Amino acid sequence: MAAIGPNRSLTVASLLLAAAGLGAETPRARVSYVASALTAGNTADAMSPFDKSFPAYEKLRGYFSGLTGAFQLTSQLEVTEEQDSSEEATLTLEWTLTLTDAQTGYTTNRNATIHVRLVPKRGKWKIVEFSPIELFDPRGKR
After folding, report:
1. Which residues, other chains included, contact 25 with Cβ-Cβ below 8 Å and sequence gap of 6+?
2. What percentage of residues in the chain have a pLDDT greater than 70?
3. To the nearest 5 percent, what fractions of the chain are helix, strand and coil?
4. What is the C-alpha separation between 50 and 117, in angstroms, rounded?
5. What is the three-class DSSP state of 118?
6. What is the architecture, at CATH level 2, of domain 12-136?
């Protein structure tokens, strides 16, 4: 599995996106940022790549808050499919979430295929679709 960091190789699509005014930021980097912020325990930062029009925005924020309050989190992301254009990007990820209980030290792994769609808004890629979100339910129901 790949680390949560962005892919170091530049693709033709990322060069086209940079030319569209989105700078060096890539859709992968935005998703990776979510994972990194969760590892840091920062719910607000984890939510910053999401557009507030995302239908499950508040529910996901609650899930992230519950997880970061109860567990130390680490994520492993593997991009299994990606399509980029200057108007949108779609990613399919295998996301493995490791939860370590802060009190007991007990560790549990969860895994899901996550589908993400991003669109450029005000010069940044914003996540407008992200599903399923049940991987992040702190109660563990999936």
Report:
1. 124, 125
2. 82
3. 30, 35, 30
4. 10
5. strand
6. Roll (3.10)
